[in-house]
Amino acid sequence: MEQCPPLSRSIAGRVAIVTGAASGMGRATAILFASEGAKVAVTDLDQSACDAVVAEIEANGGTAKAFALDVSNVDAINDVVASVAQTFGGIDILVNNAGISAFCPLDAGEQYDAVWDRALAILLTAHQRTVRAALPWLRESDAARIVNIASTEGLGATPGDTPYVAAKTGVTGLTRGMAVDLGKEGITVNCICPGPIRTGMTNNVPEEDKMLYAKRRTALRRYAWPEEVAHMTLSLVLPAASFITGAVIPVDGGLMARNA
Ligand code: NAD
Fold first, then answer.
1. What is the 3 CA–ligand 1 centroid distance (Å)?
2. CA 25, CA 20: separation in Å to the nearest integer?
3. What would the mean pLDDT of 71-100 be, rounded to a whole number?
4. Atom 36 of ligand 1 has which residue's CA nearest to it?
5. Ligand 1 pocket mutation pick from 48, 201, 204 by most atoms within 8 angstroms of CB
6. How many A from CA of 5 to the centre of ligand 1?
7. Could you tell me the CA-to-CA distances from 215 to 97, 163, 176, 248 in Å, in that order?
């Protein structure tokens, strides 16, 4: 009888691109991947902020390179992805993480249109653009992995957040569609839906409000650290995660499980 081939739990030597990697979950993911031996392309809007993460990785003996990238700029995506492949000799892993918050009431008029366009461009369109740009190299990898960072807002809605909810719900659909289309090539595409996480995005929420929200909404009654999400991302990009695709996974302290 045929047997399961060896399943590797190492990403050592693999090339990973992480978008929005200068802060929060992207930063934690880049640092974790590098600590596991991956070669990491640290990409974000601001070159010096990327440089700081790379310096931290290198100080701990890891391999990384900074690439300034605004994911709402299609040409820049194509250029940076090609540079990463040239620098590191391929691409195995893509983590679409860059994001912004996009609260806006429905009756905000033209302001709503602007928030909507920006939210969709950065939170949804960019995900498919980076994947399409990286595909030629992902196709050459023997364990190509894509992880999209959505949100619990992609599974349910907070009032006043429709642009973000629409974009993040789109990410869950995009994940499923891409998983189905790329599955025959052995490329996996999964999606993580974080709940409340302590990052740049939630920095301005007062500690007291964080505690109130977490106690009222999550089963674990707390905000999470970005590293707790990064570990789920790592588990999905391992070569051994070879039969997981199209999954939409909450990392939310039980927020979506809670009903009262
Ligand atoms: P963060 O603000 O700490 O990090 C987001 C990073 O994305 C920043 O470094 C920012 O510069 C970068 N970014 C923003 N616009 C960009 C663009 N156009 N091009 C490239 N980079 C850009 O926030 P975070 O919480 O770590 O966010 C990471 C992801 O997690 C986002 O997609 C966010 O929507 C999602 N998320 C966050 C939470 C939370 O509670 N923090 C919950 C659910 C989902």
1. 42
2. 8
3. 98
4. 151
5. 201
6. 37
7. 26, 26, 32, 24
- Extract the tokens encoding 192: 């993580």
According to CATH, the superfamily of the domain at 15-251 is: NAD(P)-binding Rossmann-like Domain (3.40.50.720)
Measured distance CA(121)–CA(166) in Å, rounded: 12
- DSSP character at residue 39: E
Q: Give residue 28's Cα distance to chain centre.
A: 11
Rounded distance from Cα 7 to ligand 1 centre (Å):
32
- Does the pTM exceed 0.95? yes
Residues with CB under 6 A from ligand 1: 19-20, 22-26, 44-45, 69-72, 97-100, 122, 149, 151, 194, 196-197, 199-202, 226
15: amino acid identity, one letter: V
The pLDDT tens digits of the residues spanning 199-220 come to 999 999 999 999 999 999 999 9
Q: At what angle do helices 162-182 and 110-120 cross, to 10 degrees?
A: 30
> What does each C-alpha distance from 247 to 24, 50, 121, 179 come to in angstroms?
23, 29, 23, 9
pLDDT of residue 222: 98
Please state the ipTM of this predicted complex: 0.99
Is residue 223 among the annotated active site residues? no
Q: How far is the CA of 85 from the centre of ligand 1 (A)?
A: 24
Q: Residue 59 and residue 28: Cα distance in Å, rounded? A: 15
What is the spatial distance between Cα 80 and Cα 69, in angstroms, rounded to a whole number? 7
> Which has the closest alpha carbon to 107: 154, 144, 160, 66?
160
